[in-house]
Design brief:
Keywords: Membrane, Transmembrane, Transmembrane helix. With 120 residues, the protein is mostly helical. The chain has a domain of 77 residues.
Length: 120
């Protein structure tokens, strides 16, 4: 008995990729991604620059002790790591709930398009 292999559709052509990249659905996906990524990146960058400027020019402020040997500079530095983790978590959550379903829809529509007669 011969083993049957699953049938895989033809991969999309370069022209099909170009057509999809110019589609309204892909444009909406790109807009959704940019609406999240650009603002959160700008906020994180501003927060990082704030930390660098304060640590460089406000040494009297950053050297204020908070608890024992821990000072404000150390707290702000550790907050950078916490912020990076929070941004990563937010992006993964956003991608899982918003980007991935839209991406899957676009991918499925590309793979389900019939191949025109005469093209293989």
């Amino acid at each position: 008995m011969q083993q049957q292999h699953p049938v895989h559709p033809q991969p999309p052509t370069a022209d099909e990729f170009l057509a999809v990249s110019q589609s309204e659905e892909f444009g909406a996906l790109r807009h959704t991604f940019r609406s999240f990524a650009f603002p959160i990146s700008a906020v994180f960058l501003l927060w990082f620059v704030f930390y660098i400027v304060v640590a460089t020019f406000a040494t009297d402020f950053t050297s204020i002790r908070v608890y024992g040997a821990i000072n404000i500079g150390m707290v702000l530095g550790l907050a950078q790591f916490a912020t990076a983790g929070i941004v990563t978590w937010l992006y993964v959550r956003f991608a899982d709930n918003t980007l991935d379903p839209a991406t899957a829809s676009i991918r499925n529509s590309m793979l389900q398009q019939p191949t025109p007669i005469g093209k293989v």
